[in-house]
């Protein structure tokens, strides 16, 4: 997660993201190396909202006699920047080689400069968009050769917070008549967002911008505080790195998952920085993150 970012840094990062979006739109998957067909789909429309923010990219193989597993990726960016087209090459190469359909989704974003505007994009808008995208995939992926009974989520940074809450809260998928157990796995890559109450109480600017100042909302939005006995949750993969306090947040979430019977795979990858751990997924010759993640998805899709 982009913690306590100064506003000028957010602005600069947004400009970099815009440039990446421009280049990505013109450098799609190499057909000589990857057999995917890429299609961009609007998973919903909202009047006055840029359609790109409510769209997803499907990388698929066409119809198949054997429906294929599906991995849905949610990008990071402090809930304020980022795009579904960024840093796709390694991921598409990896998931194509595994025979999985790969989907990267967009969602509405909070202001790049921290705001107190009560009408700004903030929780639960990001999470509702992600849930609506998953709902669309669940209802439509068979048309693209996918298996709706084999869907897993993958997210980095803010995206990791988003998929972790999607996989633990009753407010999103169950509210759309999709039981949490429909999701076969959630892979969360390097976030401090498992406990929003902690981030809010420490005046983390990114979280105040995205979740507001109401402690009740912080608790509601915290994956660690949604877990309860007697609910069937997806299995989880937690990739952690960084400071001792950051790793401790992940460890607390892992312990809580395990206390309610969730199977958890975990790795620590301090050889990478925050962006590097995401870029490592699917990189040629990379084993510290890619191989455990491959094993996790294989377990999810048995």
Give me a quick take on this structure.
The protein is an alpha/beta fold and 302 residues long.
CATH superfamily: Alpha/Beta hydrolase fold, catalytic domain
CATH architecture descriptor: 3-Layer(aba) Sandwich
Alpha-beta classification: alpha/beta
Q: What CATH first level would be assigned? A: Alpha Beta
Largest sheet, order of strands side by side? 1-2-4-3-5-6-7-8
**What percent of residues are in strands?**
15-25%
Q: How is the main sheet built?
A: 8 strands, mixed
Enumerate the spans where pLDDT stays under 50 for 5 or more consecutive residues.
Answer: 1-34
- Report the average pLDDT across residues: 91
Verbal overview:
This protein has 10 helices and 8 strands. The protein has 302 residues and is α/β, with parallel strands linked by helices. The chain has one domain: Rossmann fold (3-Layer(aba) Sandwich). Strands 1-2-4-3-5-6-7-8 form an 8-stranded mixed beta sheet, sandwiched between helices. Helix 8 links the parallel strand 7 and strand 8.
List the helices and strands and how they pair.
Elements: H1 7-24, E1 37-42, E2 55-60, E3 68-74, H2 89-97, E4 101-105, H3 125-140, E5 146-156, H4 158-166, E6 183-189, H5 196-201, H6 205-211, H7 215-220, E7 235-240, H8 244-259, E8 264-268, H9 274-279, H10 290-300
Parallel strand pairs: 3-4, 3-5, 5-6, 6-7, 7-8
Antiparallel strand pairs: 1-2, 2-4
Helix pairs in contact: 3-4
């Amino acid at each position: 997660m982009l913690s306590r970012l100064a506003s000028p840094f957010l602005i600069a990062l947004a400009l970099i993201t815009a440039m990446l979006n421009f280049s990505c739109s013109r450098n799609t998957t190499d057909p000589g190396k990857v057999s995917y067909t890429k299609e961009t789909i609007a998973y919903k429309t909202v009047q006055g909202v840029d359609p790109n923010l409510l769209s997803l990219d499907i990388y698929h193989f066409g119809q198949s006699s054997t429906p294929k597993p599906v991995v849905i990726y949610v990008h990071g960016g402090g809930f304020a920047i980022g795009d579904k087209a960024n840093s796709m090459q390694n991921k598409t190469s990896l998931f194509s080689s595994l025979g999985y359909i790969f989907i990267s989704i967009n969602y509405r974003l909070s202001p790049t400069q921290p705001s107190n505007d009560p009408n700004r994009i903030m929780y639960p808008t990001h999470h509702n968009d992600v849930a609506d995208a998953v709902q669309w995939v669940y209802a439509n992926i068979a048309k693209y050769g996918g298996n709706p009974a084999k869907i897993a989520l993958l997210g980095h940074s803010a995206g990791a917070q988003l998929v972790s809450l999607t996989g633990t809260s009753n407010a999103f998928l169950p509210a759309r008549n999709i039981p949490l157990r429909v999701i076969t796995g959630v892979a969360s890559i390097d976030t401090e967002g498992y406990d929003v109450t902690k981030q809010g109480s420490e005046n983390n600017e990114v979280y105040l911008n995205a979740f507001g100042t109401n402690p009740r909302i912080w608790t509601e939005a915290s994956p660690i505080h949604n877990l309860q006995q007697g609910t069937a949750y997806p299995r989880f993969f937690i990739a952690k790195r960084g400071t001792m306090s950051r790793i401790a947040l992940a460890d607390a979430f892992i312990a809580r998952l395990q206390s309610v019977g969730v199977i958890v795979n975990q790795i620590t990858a301090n050889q990478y920085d925050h962006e590097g751990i995401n870029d490592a997924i699917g990189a040629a010759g990379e084993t510290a993150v890619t191989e455990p993640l491959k094993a996790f998805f294989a377990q999810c899709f048995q």
